[in-house]
Amino acid sequence: FERERTTVILYNKPRNVITSHSNIDAAPTSPENGKEILRTTVYEEIQSMTGYVGGGSEHGINLKDGNISFESATGIRSKWHAIGRLDVDTTGLLLLTNDGGLVHHATNPTSESHKDSGVITKTYEALIMGHHDDESSPALKQIRTIGVDIGAKYGGWTKPSQNLKVLNHPTPKSTLVSITIAEGKNRQVRRMFHGVHSGVMKLHRSKIGQKLTLGNLEEGEWRILSEAEVLESLNWNTRTLDTIYQQKGRNRKKNMKSYKH
């Protein structure tokens, strides 16, 4: 019998990779030449092991073995999910896990698990339309102080940003900003800037919480977080999950039982 434990993957998501288990919408046509745009899902990309960055030993396996499988490297045999989606055009830090409780904890600001630890924030770098200055921009002031009405369909008014600052101006008509939010409404950052009569041309998630960044991961690469990183960055104790597997030759039988964490 094999019991799974909480496993968290940190992935540097490229553009045109979909945060979905289905690639049904993975081949739209380009408005420029009418040809299909090649899109895959984050699950296909990660399971291919092409971007895996390992070292040392995890789950009793030598991670330097070039022929290692996804199951051997991660210990994940059940279904796994993203901890907060990134849309197809957004790049950067994406976490995935096999622990449904962790998904709820990290993405639901009203979760009971946040009473002592506070909400987990997300930080993005956004290239926005227009020339905006830190002190004089009405749009940035609104996002900082009262939030933005992104429409009832998408959750109504957002909370003010936790932090918002201008990084530079790549062109006279564009501004690169860093913005930190504590919510996770659908396409929230893009809708916030649209709601103040700007728009996002590029979006990159650079940090989750106070410390978790991409580090040296190149685009398309991923690694497994240590238990200490999961606790420090997400305030979550890794645990033995309820899903176990009984190995019988090449066939694997899934059993659902309850175990104390």
TrEMBL record:
GO molecular function, one term: pseudouridine synthase activity
GO terms for biological process, alphabetical: pseudouridine synthesis; rRNA processing
InterPro entries: PsdUridine_s_RsuA/RluB/E/F_cat (IPR042092), PsdUridine_synth_cat_dom_sf (IPR020103), PsdUridine_synth_RsuA/RluA (IPR006145), PsdUridine_synth_RsuA/RluB_CS (IPR018496), RsuA_PseudoU_synthase (IPR050343), TruA/RsuA/RluB/E/F_N (IPR020094)
Keywords for this protein: Isomerase
Pseudouridine synthase RsuA/RluA-like domain location: 8-194
Record's keyword annotation contains Isomerase: yes
Organism superkingdom: Eukaryota
Keyword Isomerase: yes
Pfam families: PseudoU_synth_2
Listed PANTHER family: PSEUDOURIDINE SYNTHASE FAMILY PROTEIN-RELATED, RNA-BINDING S4 DOMAIN-CONTAINING PROTEIN
Similarity section: Belongs to the pseudouridine synthase RsuA family.
UniProt name for this protein: Pseudouridine synthase RsuA/RluA-like domain-containing protein
